[in-house]
Every structure is written in C-alpha cells, then in structure tokens.
Amino acid sequence: xxxxxxxxxxxxxxxxxxxxxxxxxxxxFFIGSILVTSIANAWRLTGYLDLRFGISVVLVYFILVWxxxxxxxxxxxxx
Length: 79
Hints:
Blueprint: H1 2-45, H2 51-78
C-alpha cells in the first residue's frame, strides 16, 4: 500500500516539475518574442538606434541563445 502511494506521489511530483519547467520555457520564449518584435520595429521604423534597442538586443541574445545552451550543458553534466 505504501509503495503504491509513494509511486503515485513521485509521478505527481514529476508531472508537476515538467509542467513548471515547460511554463518557464514558454514564458522565456514569450518574452523573447516580444523583444524581437520591438527590435524589428525599432530597426525598421526609426532612423536611429537608442539605448533601449541595444538593451533589447543583449536581452534577446541572453534569453534565446545563451540561456538555453547553458541550461542544456548544465543538465547534461548533472547526469
């Protein structure tokens, strides 16, 4: 009885961790898409590029390129 309950709770915890992880990844891609849209609009519609444009470019690189590569290498080294 205890083993069945323990396995059920472990499955629930695994599903919960997966859902939280997927929602975090989805949130990062949502923020990244907003930043990419603002970068495209700033680059296309204005004749000059300001500090906000530069910060957006750095954040897009960090969120969409560096962070996924860092997470993949970190989780590969754990196992």
